[in-house]
Design goal:
CATH class of the largest domain: Mainly Alpha
Number of strands: 0
Order of helices and strands: HHHHHHHHHH
CATH topology of the largest domain: Muramoyl-pentapeptide Carboxypeptidase, domain 1
Number of helices: 10
Strand content: under 5%
Number of domains: 3
Shape: globular
Helix content: 40-55%
Oligomer: single chain
């Protein structure tokens, strides 16, 4: 795979509403969106080119994705669609700052740091082990080292990522595309791309045997509670940073 920002203007994912215009909107945010669509069940109807251009083919694909996750299928990618893709922006952002809108480094703290840690953990057990704890929103030495390990590992998939232990544009793009979940807590009645990723992880642990449909229903809640009981967490059925960490450690 070529670098996610290859020859494209960097635009933070979720920072603007995407729509069909003349000339066509383009940028790294569109390319990330196209990758997410292609990794979703909606792509069974056909994948789209990952060219970073928001043309008619991508619009139709996003309408299928919106219908899958019960968002109005209008082809406009705004806060509701980003939310279904596990990214909080607009009115869904309550604890700020928005993930991906500032460079993060050692010494920083906040909900965007917690999401960074969540997404690193969701990328594999190797990173959960390196972090050594549930994400807590503090960018410490272990977070720096975990991020550096991730950046080294991701080179084969996205060679544009610098290996510097800093969270910048190229790293954000990779985490959006490859981490699956971690952008928001997940609970009963939520639906989206990240719920599907959670279900897949729970299935691999044989805690969930329902349909992997991206809908957080009673079976998904029961599976989360089983994991929480096994790991001595409060069995409230909410998938948060502690659940993401315990899931990753066991995969």
């Amino acid at each position: 795979m070529a670098a996610l920002d290859n020859a494209l203007t960097y635009v933070p994912f979720g920072s603007r509403i995407l729509r069909l215009t003349v000339p066509r909107m383009n940028g790294t945010d569109v390319k990330v969106l196209q990758h997410l669509y292609n990794a979703s069940p909606a792509a069974r109807a056909g994948e789209v080119p990952t060219d970073g251009l928001y043309g008619s083919e991508t619009v139709h694909a996003i309408q299928r994705l919106q219908a899958l996750f019960e968002v109005e299928a209008d082809g406009f990618v705004g806060p509701k669609t980003y939310y279904a893709l596990g990214h909080l922006t607009g009115g869904y952002l309550v604890n700020g700052p928005e993930f991906g809108r500032r460079q993060l480094s050692q010494g920083d703290s906040g909900n965007d740091v917690r999401i960074l840690q969540n997404r690193l953990v969701a990328s594999g057990r190797r990173y959960a082990q390196a972090l050594g704890r549930a994400p807590d929103g503090d960018f410490d030495v272990r977070t720096t080292e975990t991020l550096r390990i991730y950046q080294e590992d991701i080179q084969s998939l996205n060679p544009g990522v610098p290996i510097n232990g800093l969270a910048g544009p190229e790293t954000y793009n990779s985490l959006h595309v490859f981490s699956g979940h971690g952008g928001r807590p997940l609970r009963r009645r939520r639906k989206g791309y990240d719920v599907l990723s959670l279900q897949r992880g729970l299935s691999r642990l044989r805690l969930f045997d329902g349909e992997e449909d991206g809908f957080f229903g009673s079976e998904t809640e029961a599976a989360v509670k089983r994991l929480q009981r096994q790991t001595h967490l409060d069995p409230d059925g909410v998938a948060d940073s502690s659940v993401f960490y315990e899931l990753a450690i066991r995969l």
